[in-house]
Amino acid sequence: MLSNEKIEIKCPSCQKTFSYTVDQLQKGQSKRCPHCGNDIRFEESHPGEVGKLEDKTKKSLADIDKKITMTIRE
Ligand SMILES: [Zn+2]
């Protein structure tokens, strides 16, 4: 499934990398770095990261966009 594709994220604070699946990454959402606890927000604070993220998963995110909306409501 596309939603299980893993995306590598580099923490801008501690420079360590960790990964989330596409399913776990939602547009406009923030994730906490598991290493240093830094709050990493996609789209706004780190447009460079988002650019890479979307470039790699643009199609996947578009495909699961409806699914994301449903998830947020819960
Ligand atoms: Zn970190």
Strand order of the largest sheet: 1-2
Termini distance? 22 Å
Q: Main beta sheet, described?
A: 2 strands, antiparallel
Q: Care to count the β-strands?
A: 4
Radius of gyration: 12 Å
Order of helices and strands: EEEEHH
| Share in helix | 25-40%
Q: Which stretches are poorly predicted, pLDDT < 50 over at least 5 residues?
A: none
Mean pLDDT: 71
How much of the polypeptide forms β-strand, as a percent range? 15-25%
Outline, from the CA principal axes? Answer: globular
SS-based class: alpha+beta
Bound compounds, each kind once, are:
zinc ion
Number of helices: 2
Number of domains: 1
Please explain how this structure is put together:
By secondary structure, this protein is an alpha+beta fold. It has one domain. The protein contains 2 helices and 4 strands. The strands form 2 sheets. It has a two-stranded antiparallel sheet with strand order 1-2. A two-stranded antiparallel sheet has the order 3-4. A hairpin with a 6-residue loop joins β3 and β4. Zinc ion binds next to loops.
Characteristics:
single chain; 74 residues; alpha+beta; binds zinc ion
List the helices and strands and how they pair.
Blueprint: E1 6-10, E2 17-21, E3 30-32, E4 39-41, H1 47-63, H2 65-73
Bound molecules: zinc ion.
Summarize the structure.
This protein is of the alpha+beta class. The chain contains two helices and four strands, in the order ββββαα. The two termini are 22 Å apart.
